[in-house]
Amino acid sequence: MAEFLITSDNRKILHIDLDAFYAQIEIRDNPKLRHVPLIISRDPSESNGRGVVATANYAARQLGVHSAMSAAEAKQLAPNGVFMKPNFQKYQMISNQIHQIFHQYTNKIEPVAFDEAYLDLTESVLSGATLAAKLRHQILKEIHLTSSVGISYNKLLAKLASEFNKPNGVTVITEDNVLEFLSILPIASFRGVGKKTQEKFKVLGITNGEQLRRMSQEALRAQFGKMGEHLYWQARGVHFGEVKWQRQRQSVGKEETFDRFLQTTQEINLEFEKLVTKVILAMSKRSFVGRTLNIKIRDSEFNTITRSVTQNEPFKLDKHILISIAQSIFDENIDAPFSIRLLGLSFSNLQSSGFEEITLF
Ligand SMILES: [Mg+2]
């Protein structure tokens, strides 16, 4: 049988999913909870049986508890389980910390949920498997949480891969093993196959990816319409969706207006020092470096000048170097005596800082 494969897709797409995120965080912060069934939900006995399970740890899952189940049902399955109200503020904060790690690898990040994202790592020189290992290790070391990662050449396969080896696993799908991987996949694992479609496939005698791939495009279309068309390509691992990331901002900077105008070099120096510290922090938080440094100066008469310095390589985020550049731009452009009402400092031509060292002090 002739197989159609797209072999020109050499992207590196990673899908990451933190394992039982909310439950894992609560266990991290209170290890006594590890061996009891933990259900992140309001306790049904305190809320008249209302409430829905946000997530549950693996001990609770073994008893049949799963997310989106009613808390009352979970209580029946796990009568000795611990119910804990979700603390979304905390989860959001930890999600932000994890995203700061993502940004060290790429800014091409598509968040799916607090605990789930796609990263486009095509530009990295490292292999997919190495990137997955590094990222997982870093999250474990710095945030103390495990994750499951799938890596492949498109989003569909990356997602299927991360689901395949849960919890705390890595799956790499390449062109060499893609058909093998898809062949054994249960039909319900393909995107868009719900209970009804699954039943229909069962009647047709189709329960896995290999059988799905044997169906012709025409037959699939006849049976399932547009969904059938999608499934034809899914069975071959073909998917062209892009990682939808937020275009990075044009510049990062700060400016300061002074009620009492600055009139001495010492005052200018001190204010540049404050600005540089703030901007370095803002850049570091977002894991950016910039090739252009912009300085803005406005005097008491509202004359404003902006000056920029562009380098081939990004500026090192070194406080002393940046203050001295800002100071010399000031000296070159402003004659004494002066009276300054505003100073600004920003970076543009931004790029991801990757693994470059950041020197804060
Ligand atoms: Mg998760």
From TrEMBL:
Among the GO biological process terms of this entry, one is: DNA repair
| Cofactor(s) named in the record | Mg(2+)
The molecular function terms in GO held by this entry are: damaged DNA binding; DNA-directed DNA polymerase activity; magnesium ion binding
Q: Does the keyword Lipoprotein apply?
A: no
Q: Which Gene3D superfamilies does this UniProt record tie to the protein?
A: 3.30.70.270, 3.40.1170.60, 5' to 3' exonuclease, C-terminal subdomain, DNA polymerase, Y-family, little finger domain
**Active site: which residues?**
116
The keyword Signal is assigned to this record: no
What are the site positions for Substrate discrimination?
Answer: 22
Which coarse location class describes where this protein primarily resides? Answer: cytoplasm
Residues recorded as binding Mg(2+), renumbered to this chain, are 17, 115
Under the heading InterPro entries, the entry gives: DNA/RNA_pol_sf, DNA_pol_Y-fam_lit_finger_sf, DNA_pol_Y-fam_little_finger, DNA_polymerase-Y, DNApol_IV, IMS_HHH_1, Rev_trsase/Diguanyl_cyclase, UmuC
What keywords tag this UniProt record?
Cytoplasm, DNA damage, DNA repair, DNA replication, DNA-binding, DNA-directed DNA polymerase, Magnesium, Metal-binding, Mutator protein, Nucleotidyltransferase, Transferase
Q: Where in the cell is it found?
A: Cytoplasm
The record ties this protein, via NCBIfam families, to:
PRK02406.1 (NF002677)
**UniProt cross-references to PANTHER family, sorted A to Z:** DNA POLYMERASE KAPPA, DNA REPAIR POLYMERASE UMUC / TRANSFERASE FAMILY MEMBER
Q: How does it assemble?
A: Monomer.
**Could you identify this protein by its name?**
DNA polymerase IV
For this protein's source organism, the top of the classification is: Bacteria, Bacillati, Bacillota, Bacilli, Lactobacillales
**Which gene holds the coding sequence for this protein?**
dinB
